[in-house]
């Protein structure tokens, strides 16, 4: 009996499930249903004669055999894509804007894997605030943007909620009677507006002790214990904790992550759909602070279902 032959779509389903640790998000990334990718995975497992993915109601993870097979499966998919590209010689690019308060640690990993899958596609990424990216999109400077929803509530594809919290270093000490020491981005930053409006509405005095310098600089100031800052719960520095309840700070309203795109060719839209799938959330939290947990260090959400 000869060696089993591999089906490209089945192997792609396995790799995508492994990447997202989620059948739901994998199905969204591939533009299909959970049932369809489950069938493809089962067919692949039967052909190989081993279990590749272990699935429980709360967890999706690789089996021991799946971990061994994963890198070879990635190489198989990449070789398949290179073969197609060699025939078509079609090089494409699109210009993507991602808001600084939306781009998470998973983005570099996703872009690298998209390049492996489709070497003929070049994605030019611009990181700025949501308002600047929307203006650039309207002016035709960008083909797609993933941004926080602005007050104009323009039409777009809703990728899910974005939750915010108050974060500080574990040793941060707010002295009684003094204004809250607040680190914030430039005045045009939407997250700064959310934070200052909430503090004003709650009658809490505050003083900006660190302003501007970019998102990374604000993260460094908060990690050093200099101040409190409002962060997207996905992007808070891993060495900080949510301190809103302890300091009696107001709950911050959630926003939405929106995708706007003018892309029309199939392969570019497939790549964008894979990026969008990383942002989707499927369970509404009871309160914002329940969602204030950072992503795991390998760039993929934990406990996805």
From TrEMBL:
Annotated HTH lysR-type domain ranges read 6-63
* Classification via PROSITE patterns: HTH_LYSR
Keywords, A to Z, come to: DNA-binding, Transcription, Transcription regulation
Task: Kindly give the SUPFAM superfamilies that the UniProt entry links to this protein.
Answer: Periplasmic binding protein-like II (SSF53850), Winged helix' DNA-binding domain (SSF46785)
Q: Which Pfam families match?
A: HTH_1, LysR_substrate
Matching entries from InterPro entries are given as: LTTR, LysR_HTH_N, LysR_subst-bd, WH-like_DNA-bd_sf, WH_DNA-bd_sf
Top-level division of the source organism's lineage = Bacteria
Protein family: Belongs to the LysR transcriptional regulatory family.
- Identification of the protein by name: LysR family transcriptional regulator
- This protein's species is Halomonas salifodinae
């Amino acid at each position: 009996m000869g060696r089993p032959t591999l089906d490209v779509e089945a192997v792609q389903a396995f790799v995508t499930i492994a990447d997202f640790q989620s059948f739901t998000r994998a199905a969204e990334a591939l533009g299909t249903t959970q049932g369809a990718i489950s069938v493809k995975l089962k067919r692949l497992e039967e052909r190989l004669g081993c279990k590749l993915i272990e699935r429980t109601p709360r967890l999706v993870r690789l089996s021991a055999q799946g971990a061994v097979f994963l890198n070879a499966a990635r190489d198989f998919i990449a070789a398949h894509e290179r073969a197609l590209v060699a025939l078509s010689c079609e090089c494409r690019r699109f210009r993507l804007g991602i808001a600084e308060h939306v781009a998470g640690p998973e983005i570099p990993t996703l872009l690298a894997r998209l390049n492996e899958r489709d070497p003929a596609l070049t994605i030019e990424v611009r990181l700025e605030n949501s308002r600047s990216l929307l203006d650039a999109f309207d002016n035709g400077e960008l083909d797609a943007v993933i941004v926080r929803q602005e007050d104009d509530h323009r039409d777009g594809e809703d990728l899910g909620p974005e939750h915010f919290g108050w974060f500080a270093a574990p040793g941060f000490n707010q002295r009684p009677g003094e204004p809250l020491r607040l680190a914030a981005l430039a005045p045009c930053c939407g997250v700064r507006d959310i934070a200052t409006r909430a503090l004003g509405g709650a009658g809490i005095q505050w003083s900006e002790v660190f302003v501007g310098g970019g998102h990374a600089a604000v993260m460094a100031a908060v990690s050093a214990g200099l101040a409190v800052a409002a962060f997207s719960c996905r992007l808070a520095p891993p060495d900080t904790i949510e301190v809103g309840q302890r300091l009696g700070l107001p709950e911050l309203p959630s926003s939405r992550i929106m995708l706007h795109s003018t892309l029309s060719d199939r392969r570019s839209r497939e790549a964008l759909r894979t990026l969008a799938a990383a942002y989707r959330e499927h369970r509404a939290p009871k309160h914002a602070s329940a969602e204030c947990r950072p992503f795991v260090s390998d760039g993929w959400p934990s406990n996805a279902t």
